[in-house]
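Q: Here's a chain of 308 amino acids. Please give me its 3D structure as tokens.
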Amino acid sequence: MSQDLDANERSQTTTASPRSIPKSPPALLSGARLNRWLPPRDLLFDRLVLIYQMPKIGSQTIEATLRSCKFPHAIRRFHYLSPTLAGTVRRGISSDSPDSAWKSEAQQQLDWIGEISRTIRLRRLMCGLGVRLPKLEVITGARDLLSLVLSSIFENYLYFEKSVDAMTVERCREAILHPKTFKALRNWFDLELKRFIRVDVFDRPFSHEQGYSIFENRFARVLVYRFEALDRLPGLLRNFLGHEIPSLSNTNVSSNKSYSAQYTHVRQNLRLPPHFVNSLYSDKMMRHFYSESERAALLARWADPRPS
């Protein structure tokens, strides 16, 4: 597997820069308040796996797989750390639309944001000071954005309509074409992974044939896989984590959901304006993770062939 050490990370000295110093604990107090601010010791000093990726790329399956094979180290799964994207989740929780299961899952992720953010800042600071720590092990992924968004719309259909039957082709088309639908997703790797883990996946070509790449700096190792390589993840995870993983524990799969029939119908019949699809597949993220021929096939798959 290919690895790439970031030049800035290689040249880092053991002195932490002021920017890397974490925000001070509340009122700089010791005792109980300080203990509540500090992350648990195992998150700071032991191996830590972060399943840190956009929604609907298999994060729940990866977590369930690692837990089922008794992976012995801490695991945290979440989608966002940046305040901008986390704010979107908060607004969803405050809405009357999402169901209770979605709210519970989203609230757990929000509860972890503060803890994980402090953990990352403190571990990065300690690495800068020369403290020997295991590198963070980050698992993230990429997916065709139209497939990702359509799957997410059905996962959260109560946010749009009162019943799944109301999620018609036209209703989904309307939701997808909303100007804000793709804004955060298009920039996820810059807003999230690059900002917090200091890994820029666009620094070098992605292996389309392999379906994955590994990046590494002095602070973290990052496995980036494509959704299409999900079935190969047991081997990828085994090599990346050094732990035996016999098979995937598939979880949160659209085909197993109550909305499966309607989702399949919409997926088969949905077509979108060619200029919109072409703009999406000309985006930096899609050009990086999908070859020209793959993007051409996706364009043909989603673009409406009828004159607009």
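Q: Can you summarize the key feature?
A: Residues 7-145+189-254 form one domain.
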